[in-house]
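Mods, move this if it's the wrong board.
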Amino acid sequence: MDSNLRTIVKAVTWQALGLASTSLLAWIYTGSVLGALGFALSTSATGLAFFVVHERIWARVNWGLRRPQG
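Not the wrong board. C-alpha cells:
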C-alpha cells in the first residue's frame, strides 16, 4: 500500500499534466488565457481531491491483488 505522502505526490504530478492539457484545450476553444486558466484550475482542484479519495479507497480493496509467492 502506498503511503499517504506518495499518494498525494502521485496525485499532484498527475494533476499538473492535466492542468497543462486542460489549459491548452480551454485556451484553444475560448481564446481567453485567463478564462482557460480559471477553468483548468477549478477542474484540477476537484480532480486532485477525487483522485486522492479514489486512491485511498482502492488502497483498502484486496480484490485483484496477487500475493508474493515464496
